[in-house]
Amino acid sequence: MTELTEGDYSLYITNQNIYIEYKYYNNILDIDKYSGGITESNIQLSENIKKIKPQKPHAILGIINLEKIEFIIFVKSAYVIGKIEEAEVFRVKEVELIPIVPDKELDYLGSEVRNLVEGIKNLYTLGFFYSFNYDLTNSLQNQSKLKELDILTSANKKFFWNFCLYKNFYLTNNLNEKEKENANEKYNENRNGYDEGNLSFISTLKVNKIWMVVCIYGYVGIVNLKIDYNLTSEKTAVYLISRRSIFHSGTRYLSRGVDDNGHVANHVETEQILKIKDNLFSFMQLRGSVPIFFEQPGIQANTNIIRNATMTAPAFKKHIQEIRDDFGYIYLINLMNMKKPNEHIITENYELQIKNNELKNLKYLFWDFQNKCKFDNYEPLDDFAKDLEGVFKIFKYHHEKDQGKIIKKQGGIIRTNCLDCLDRTNVVQARIGWKVLELLVKKIKKLNNK
Asked: What is the tens place of the pLDDT at every residue in 96-116?
């Protein structure tokens, strides 16, 4: 990875304003420290500013409110991960927070605010990725439906982690209630899963979109290699993108199960993309906590089921329906250990929901990972993956040509869970992904031999 410490933006701070320049745009972003107002202007900084503090942000992530004090967040340094379809992908290395307050108030920022600022800085070191030219929030299959839209408009709000930080970038003050209602309705038609929070600010941007970037939380990996397909080696690229949902987020042990909106903890969509010549193949998987209401305060604590089957059913069905709306068919794989009381009770309640709700286009498999793969013997996973070949044939994968011609679509999704959707789920999803990659390489070889 290459580290970048300077971007195409320039930041200037005066007693009254924060100004941001963009290398390829004529206007200046102007943030008033006293009012917090954001505007664009064509002022010449060299003529209008006496006190200048130059910095070179790589991206502007938005504005956050900490204890009633607003801070602008920008990427101070980033790693270049590589390119997906000629678009560079970056991982945040370090962010900076600049308070939007007059200089005379800087000395009055309390220790609590300063601790929150440090917490935000630490948070952004954990795996945030962005690209100015590639939509990391949407799979190739979704992108094929959104080609006429720019990334900011088409971004799947379920995976757009800094979306709410751009609230101040939209017009709100001049909207009456009817206009706000219409703006919300218009946005909800294309919200791509975003259905929570106060959306009244969604209306017209008051600044250019070049000041904004779409950021995901998860993982992006890029590998370029050569594979022998037909006596000759072909340049091949493999991209792996994991997108974690913004909903029901939180740390392990504190965020578990499902919420009333059908969102589960650790909900992650993982997409593997294979590029060979002018072909793009995409295969997606899901992981997520079991969609029932349960809690386990710590590793030694007992699991508590906090709602009965009847009260759980509405949230459970919302979760399943959302997946079905996106992917059609669903194959649920549960990797829990039935010999552990804490996991047994979760599985029991999970299976009760599946049975009681008589869901269509859904199949469920219980596979006791820890007892089948004792003593780190992972050979049973080979048979497990082979048994899923029938599922792969039914669900298929997304296949398109470079020119945008769609050859095939993925019509189903495998959703895997263990207790926290971490280690066991990682191993199984990796084996499934590897098996699909094997099948795709074999298919390409057959196509080349024709």
From this structure: 999 999 887 877 788 899 999
Tell me: the pLDDT tens digits for 328-347? 999 999 999 999 999 999 99
Q: Is the pLDDT of residue 327 over 80?
A: yes
Of 110-124, 181-195, 327-341, 391-405, the least confident: 181-195
The C-alpha atoms of residue 159 and residue 165 are separated, in whole angstroms, by 14
Question: Going by C-beta distance under 8 Å and a sequence separation of 6 or more, which residues neighbour residue 374?
Answer: none
Whose tokens are 């390489």? That residue is 441
Whether 197 has a pLDDT exceeding 60, the answer reads: no
At 371 the three-state DSSP class reads helix
To the nearest whole number, what is the mean pLDDT of the chain?
Answer: 89
Return all residues near 239 (Cβ < 8 A) that are at least 6 apart.
84, 220, 221, 222, 223, 271, 272, 273, 275
Nearest residue to 73 via CA among 166, 146, 2, 199: 166
Q: Cα angle vertex 185, ends 181, 186, to 5°?
A: 115
Q: Give the distance from CA 164 to its chain's centroid.
A: 14
For residue 388, the one-letter residue type is: L
Look at strands 398-401 and 406-408 and give their pairing.
Answer: antiparallel
The set of residues, in sequence order, having a beta carbon less than 8 Å from that of 388 and lying 6+ positions away, is 414, 432, 435
What is the band of 171 on the pLDDT scale with cuts at 50, 70, 90?
confident
Find out whether 309 and 356 touch, Cβ atoms under 8 Å.
yes
Q: Which residues contact 3 (CB under 8 A, 6 or more apart)?
A: 77, 78, 79, 80, 93
Q: What is the CA radius of gyration of the chain?
A: 24
Three-state SS for 47? helix
Q: Which amino acid is at 410?
A: Q
Are 387 and 355 within 8 A, CB to CB?
no
Q: How many CB atoms lie within 10 A of CB 125?
A: 12
Q: What is the mean pLDDT of residues 158-164?
A: 96
CA distances to 14, 23, 40, 43, 219 from 48, in Å: 10, 19, 15, 7, 43
359-388 mean pLDDT: 94
Entry pTM: 0.91
